[in-house]
Amino acid sequence: MIDFLLNGQRRQCAVSPDTSVLELLRDTLGQTGTKEGCASGDCGACTVAIGETGPEGQVNYHSTNACITPAHQLQGRQLVTVEGLAQGDALHPAQAAMVACHGSQCGFCTPGIVMSLFTLHEAQRGERQIPSPLTPQRLEAALGGNLCRCTGYRPIRDAALTMSEHPERRPQWLDAAAPQPTASSSDAPFAQPETLAELVELRRRHPEARLVAGATDLWLEVTQRLTRFERLIDVTRVAELNAIEATTLGDGRHGWWIGASVTYSRLEPLLEERFEPFAHLLHRLGSAQIRNRGTLGGNIANASPIGDTPPVLLTLGSRLWLAGPDGERELPLDDFFLGYKQTALREGEVIRAIFLPHPDPQRHLAVWKLSKRREDDISAVLGAFSWRLEDGVMRDVRLAFGGMAATPKRARATEAALECQAPTRAAFETARLALGDDFQPMSDVRGSAQYRQLSATNLLERLRLTIMQGETDSPREVMLHAYAH
Amino acid sequence: MRTLTKLDDLAASETADLDPTSARSRETQRGRIEGDGPQARAAESQASVSHRHAQAHESAVKHVTGRAAYIDDLKAPADCLHLALALSPVAHGRLTRLDLAKVRAMPGVVDAVGFADVPGHTDIGPVFPGDPIFVEEEISYAGQVLFAVAAESHRAAREAVSAALAQRIAEIDERPASLDPVVAAERGEFVRPTHVQQSGDWERALADAAHVIEAEQFVGGQEHFYLEGQACLVQPTEDEGVIVHTSNQHPSETQKLVAEVLGIPFHAVTVEVRRMGGGFGGKETQASPWACIAALIARRTGRTTRIRLPRAEDMRVTGKRHPFNNRYRLGIDEAGVIQGGEITVIGDCGYSPDLSEAIVDRAMFHSDNAYSLGEARVTGHRARTHTASNTAFRGFGGPQGMMAIEAAMDDIARRIGEDPLTVRKRNLYRVDRQMTHYGQQVDQIDLLHELVERLEASSDYWTRRRAIADFNAESPVIKRGLALTPVKFGISFTAKHLNQAGALLHVYTDGSVQINHGGTEMGQGLHTKICQVVARELGLDTDRVRITATRTDKVPNTSPTAASSGADLNGQAARDACVRLKERLFDFAHDFLHTEQGLERETMRLEAGHLVAGQGESERRIPWGELVQSAYLGRISLSEKGFYATPLIHYDRNVGQGRPFYYYAFGAAVAEVSVDTLTGEYQVDRVDILHDVGDSLNPAIDIGQVEGGFIQGMGWLTSEELKWNDAGQLISDGPATYKIPTFGDLPPVFNVELLEGHPNSMASIYRSKAVGEPPFMLAISVWSALRDALASLADYRESPRLDTPATPERVLLAAETLRARHAPGMTSQEKAP
Prior knowledge:
The structure holds two protein chains of two kinds. Chain A is of the alpha+beta class.
């Protein structure tokens, strides 16, 4: 039984572990305003807002794709759908602006777009003192996860820019605290442990159960492959896995332990402040709806060869803090990926946290993702490059690629070719040849082997030009603005 | 006794401007509908109606509140059945065994149907035969429907299909698949015969030409990606029929096919469409199979039956925009003006004809775009391959045909060393070169030239051209490109009989008006425009006019909502109904109302909620509601039907000559792009559009069509890549792998304007023009700009081949090819400083 507020109304529903929020809404509750466009979290037609009560009692809303959100995760939350926003005939500003700007044509994506605008509006509301401008980047972040096949987006952009001019009509219940959930029994089919000890114990007792956090990948097994999950263990409420803690490792490196359940959205401010190139990558990882749900731990544990963050973390020398029935241990990320979707996790072991080192002011980082579409696309090739320049010579060169092998992988031969070399054309020519030894990529729907090899090689040239930037003869622009931020 | 509603609150305000010139005779009203010559425009002044013109979509508030119902939102009885389809995993083969008895016995399964269970027709080909409702024996593509399962829930039905296939209840003898349309064409494997259009001695034109340019290109297909997937809900009726709720552009055809499959008369089937969550052509013919299958189950079980295709199945089972292989060989003079030549287009039709006859025809009709081909021969082949049957998609072959000549324009420019815009302008249809290769005279040539010149000026083309040349000379990695491309698009169904429409108008005794017509609403604003037409004819505010769902029992025997024709045809039909009713009301008013003074019949008009007769001192005004109630009491019918058939059009396919189009719609776009020549990534920096919609029926809706069409076209040519594996299975079968444009693809500068001051030269509805498809092709400017940027790598001496979609991969490989050729021995690394 889950207990939550739907548009301010308390609801208690019995749902199975693999019921999605969208199924709950449409099939059980008859609320059909929220649409299914793809059932894979890629189109945004099913966007709803989930409110969580923050430390000061305020409710913060974030957008999510209802089609791949487990209904059980509504426990103790506010769920807001498109049906809830208008008060009688009085439209919410997000709705009024969409009408005024002719932002709907066929109208099928519109409920999702309205909900993304709603969460943007709520975010703006929360920053009344120091309102952040609606920059193109911010609008893209807010709306990049909502596909519209009719309008071409211009009127939707206008609606976003003008909704604050419409009369503020905000349902009072948006500020209501959701019901305090009664702690679910640890043997519930959808277990929601709150401590690491509980999690490890559950994992030991139910080795067959799958772990779920943001469900952004796991739920595709339900919607696309019709997998039935009899038992799931939700890691999103485990305190230790939600922490971001400053730390100093045994080797003296300072940094942070990022809890494995920390979402991309929570990570974004830290990366924006400390690792701009990494933050830029995050902005292109999925959509707001996905970033609000997906976790760093999930991206690593999933061990996909085209996960976006592992190559970056490899170049940063990241480590993992693992916890299991036999205790806890640390493992360099370099030793984690063993083969296609194979990891060094032992039976019953979970990722507790990921070490992110403090940025070294001497150390450079570049992260370049190549995909067919700039927003909300999966990499064909992702290159992450880290190096220091000492007396005109490259040192501690760490290069890692996604999409080039069965796992995210360091380019060891290429690194060796550049180590202790000046960034000359000759050195990079050697590196270019070495890259051919490091990788033999494959062809798939996202790109041919030829394209992967060629573009990855050309990223080395971009790297050289980037290092040389500011030198005479070097081009002023080495990459496109749209991709540079 | 019937009591009439009190009208006090209903009379419209009397404050609206009265335009004395709006009086018009019956003759001109009829003439404007049927005539073809240039006539006075509708006399209503722009100022008095502009607020109504740009009114919001009739469902806008329902869209934003979630109240607009789509098929899967319709409530159904608790015992409603849900269907799932079993699709062939192989592209070609024979179904050697199908044990549906075993499927029917599976837990949770209520019914299962295959080919042998169809009581009536088994071929549901829309125009030509060739589309079996289920596989009988021959399997023609991966995704073809083997059988369908009905269960108590959507998931149970899908699980039953998976389990059935896993238990090998179907056995298939797989055969090699034919997946290459060019090879198929060489082998003569066609779904329809080849068609040729020819004007003059094309061989002599080639022989005498100063230069000959020759090339080939591949133009990729496109998935419709309507956000609402294929869906329908079928209720059995108390007699032998069904009521079908469907997301569908062609209700009448679905009615016909459902009736034929069930073996019952058409009148036993009613098809209803309130709205679609997007259509784009993908629900013109390809919405019918699901209705037929669901109807079969509904009749077999006596239960309401629902089907919706999961996205991946929708993408695998339905046809797409046709991929094309185009070849051209054109003779030009020293100035780059085309003298003649030949163009051959091969449409990849997939496994069956579907609409491919007309689609490849339209590609041929548009292989000239806005340019005279001189003495030319255009050949169109319809290749058969083992893929889903490709179908209508916004532009209907026109965009693929245009790609050939737009590629040629760039090629000519590089050959003679002129700017591509100069070459394009020289080749535009002009007074002495006005005849198309299929024998239709191009009208409104002045408009075309003015439109291009105005855009050239407003977009600052030449200043930007110089800036780009300077930039490219200094920038080794990032290259910019610029292109202006025009559009000339023929308006009418090329199947002549489809150019007809009907409407049904009811006025109720409270003065409210209900209009129904044969067109369907898929987001394009057709219903909004029709309400505006009726409100305008009856002199009412649009809120007094309500439109209802399209139903085959209200307006029968309708044409698909396609070919951009929705407003043209149905608007005229609705107007015809209004005019007829008006005449009757005027006659009644003249004979029976205010008989003491008499109402002047000749000057009668409906304005601002009143019947108005006479001018100045003799003017008499009767509120609409009073008029309607008087007419009712006077036993005058308040219901009327309207009809329209487009005049003048004809095309003789035997000789490839005629006037297939009532008129042309024009437009032009300028796109500027930046390309990263190391990675193939690019961005569209700015787009300027000037588009011709005649006198717009609703500028807000028309701008929406122009912008939306452009972005959709840009997706087609850039990021939307359909990929099949070697076995012929579609592997780009969802939004994770098939990338339509998203918010960030909106160009940062996007100036879109409608051309003012050029009413349609033909007597279309209020001199407007069709707007659904033509803007789609404005996006060719983006592709041409990418080619322009790439050509800078060859100092503009070579026109690179750039097949579509021009993904970063294709752009990078084109750049590498150019670099290899123009800087021999140099890689991209060495070429950069």
